[in-house]
Amino acid sequence: MAWTCLLLAGVLEIVWAAAMKKSDGFTALTPTVVTLVAMVASFSLLAFAMRTLPLGAAYSIWTGIGAAGAFVFGVLFLGEALTPIRALAAILIVAGILLMKLSSGH
């Protein structure tokens, strides 16, 4: 259950990051509300997952999902550049997430 919550928390981190980008500095109401609701939900799920998962693994995986997911979102939906170096960086983040999961013992 903790891993499911952590995964959902990471997805919600992508949601709030994308909504924050669309909020235009918190001047657009709907994206601002989505940002705040997704942030609270993401932090709550992360806190729940951390009740049983190791801090280092939980936090690293949460931020990794958010970072890699926000990168993919930016490339697919915002027209951000997909360069070989940026792609390699995203691959390394995902590799780090997998290694954290494998080394967590849970």
UniProtKB/TrEMBL annotation:
Gene3D superfamilies: 1.10.3730.20. The chain crosses the membrane at residues 33-50, 57-79, 85-102. InterPro entries: EmrE-like (IPR037185), Small_drug/metabolite_transptr (IPR000390), Small_multidrug_res (IPR045324). Keywords: Cell membrane, Membrane, Transmembrane, Transmembrane helix, Transport. Its main location: membrane. Belongs to the drug/metabolite transporter (DMT) superfamily. Small multidrug resistance (SMR) (TC 2.A.7.1) family. Gdx/SugE subfamily. This is Guanidinium exporter. It comes from Albidovulum sediminis.
